[in-house]
Amino acid sequence: MKKIVAPGEVVTEQRKKMGDNVYSLNGKIYSEVIGITDNESTMASVVALKGFYMPKQNDIVIGLVVSELFSGFLVDIGAFHWSFMSKEGIREPLKRGSVVSVKVLRVNELNEADLAEPRVFYGGEIEKISPVKVPRMIGKNGSMLEVLRRGTNCNLIIGRNGRIWAKGGNTELLFKAIKIIEEEAHLPNLTNKVTEFLSKQKR
Amino acid sequence: MKKEEKKEYVNKKGLRLDGRKVDETRPIKITAGVLKNAKGSCYLEWGINKVLVSVQGPREVLPKHMANPLKAIVKFTYRMAAFSVPDRKNPRPGRRDIEISKVCGEALEKAILLEKYPNTQIEVWAQVLDSNAGSRVAVLTAASVALADAGIPMKDLVTAVAVGRADGKIIVDLNKEEEDAPDAVDMPIAMMTNSQEIVLLQMDGLFSKKEWEEAYEMSLKALEDVKKHQINALKQQFKEPIETKTTEKKEDNQVFSKSLSKNSPSDETKKEKHSSEKKVVKTEEKEIKSEVQ
Amino acid sequence: MQKDVLLELKSDKILNNLKEGKRADGRKLDEYRKIKIEKDLFHNAEGSAKVFLGNTEVIAGVKFIPGAPYPDSPAEGTISVGTELIPLASPYFESGPPSMDSIELARVVDRGIRESKAVDFKKLCVKEGEVVLIGFVDIYAINYDGNLFDACSIAAISALNQAKIPKIEDGKVVKEEFSGKLKLERKPLLSTFAKIGNALVLDPDLAEETAMQARFSVATTEDNFVSAFQKGISGSLKKDDIDNAIDIAFKAAKEIRKMI
Known about the structure:
The structure holds 3 protein chains of 3 kinds.
Chain A: E1 2-5, E2 10-12, E3 17-18, E4 22-25, E5 28-31, E6 35-38, E7 43-44, E8 47-48, E9 60-68, E10 72-76, E11 83-86, E12 99-107, E13 113-121, E14 125-128, H1 134-138, H2 143-152, E15 155-158, E16 163-167, H3 171-184, H4 190-201
Parallel strand pairs in A: 3-7, 11-13
Antiparallel strand pairs in A: 1-6, 2-5, 4-5, 6-8, 9-10, 9-12, 10-11, 12-13, 14-16, 15-16
Helix pairs in contact in A: 2-3, 2-4, 3-4
Chain B: E1 28-32, E2 40-46, E3 49-60, E4 73-80, H1 95-111, E5 120-130, H2 135-149, E6 159-166, E7 169-172, H3 176-179, E8 185-192, E9 197-201, H4 209-236, H5 255-259
Parallel strand pairs in B: 4-5
Antiparallel strand pairs in B: 1-2, 2-3, 3-5, 6-7, 6-8, 8-9
Chain C: H1 5-19, E1 35-39, E2 47-53, E3 56-67, E4 78-84, H2 100-115, E5 125-127, E6 131-143, H3 148-160, E7 164-169, E8 172-181, E9 189-196, E10 199-202, H4 206-211, E11 214-220, E12 226-232, H5 239-257
Parallel strand pairs in C: 4-6
Antiparallel strand pairs in C: 1-2, 2-3, 3-6, 5-6, 7-8, 9-10, 9-11, 11-12
Helix pairs in contact in C: 2-3
């Protein structure tokens, strides 16, 4: 059974393996964030309802080029600091404002990311969502992503950092659907709901 | 009304000037997530006090030399609006503002898991819009909620309350009139209640050790009450993920979700039939692999 | 003010859409966003108002302080408008002494009110030559999504209108007692425009402000006077722009005045 827990609330008093966003004290496991926990799970963990993006190696994210340096570029990926991307091997023309999808090459102990393999996007629109909702926005095996693409005919890329790039198709409808997923990410049956919503609106 | 005559701060029936019992706090109302441009935010009303708190960060530390390579630093700013007090307050921060900023920031540092974000700063801005004694405990209580709203991990919420004495009686949550009592003692205290760790403690007045202990005991119960408000405020923003709606829900105007009936719980486990087809697009993008928590 | 790179990206699109007379939220070029005004919010302030202008939110509070009058106007009180762009309102606002933007904002709002003689300063006289009242209007930005000028102007006028005038005895405020309410002679309101390409748009949101080359604010009164002009940032305007702006401002401000 799922329930919402706040920081400092008990997740479980049982001996369970600890997952994300929890810590143990005196035999009890507590939540560190506001999020959802499932006491039927064999692991004690909390899926955060609020949060921000922390870069991890191999993440694919959507970034904005902020400035050009001698040896590389500074890219805003919504992390704590701007990230560095070396010029080596880059053949695409990049400038301030270029929208790129990039891979996080490595992350140091200060959570600073180095980026590589940029692909430039031309045109289109960018929206931001809370990074904690990204998994739900993509869905199991990309299922929600598929629903969004089919329902709106948009080219659509969701970055692990909560940035969404979309072009073509009905972007207005897409962003409405995205807002719904954001608000109901923790509720059941969402994929079906979104499919129905999009087909109703498509007239 | 004999204004300058002796007031009965606690009368024979155990009631205070505003009708409260000695261990009763003023009415508290807390709302989280009220500011769109802030990472986290909280609006709190406590008696007449009205405070608005925002959280930004973790983000780059400026000036850079202040950064700590081992953990995040907390930059807490307490400010009172010029119109928040009976005699207009000059907008320039005074020494009181700076001291309160310091002790509140230090209180939160113990609760936040700062080691997760080295070399960054977490900024808390607390704006008092209306005040009547106890603005610093209001601000600290609100700040915890705002931090949780920002998704910043904490061991526990920090909860604060002021306890003290007026007319020889130990009372909780003094209002301005009680603070002005001739023998008034005002003791703001903030704790992480799970571990009973005190993270803020100040006092002015004359207290005996016994009175301190009585005040401490009284604060424990008050803190539990205040904490319930904090937790409710955080949870209120979200619809419960379970079927049985036992608590009252926040009104939502999403026609979308109302029109569809909810089916049985096991949602996430239902296998979706779609396979992820690779869509060919002009700019060769990489397919995002599925990642479900 | 530091700007968001993401917003800069939208500038070209905004410019192109305006060539077809379109705005991102579907508004007409001379249309305000949704406005909501809440009044009398606080115990300590003698007058107060919270204004929602689209997603921009500001709070204004009025405090009357007794003081000595200026020698050249012994029977007149005065007002003083201040604004603070606090970090609550935007991740790009920094704490510290008032920035140039904050000071310009305060002075323009003040000018619109003062020069229109919205407040009859003689009504703020307590004892000629000895005690007058200074009405401090302090405005705080709470959420910034463009056009703080108009939001602050509406908030200031709303807070001043019907503000409670404290009772003064022996040059001091008598707590919790009032001698009446402040009645405004006029209700001047600022209307602010953004010049984007050749288009002039009323009430720019943050994205439009990021795209604009020039800004123009004009305060108008219900009896068809203008009481302040302010051209802002580093682009330029033509006379036609000013003429259009004045015409639109008269109409638009009239609608807002009904809400105060």
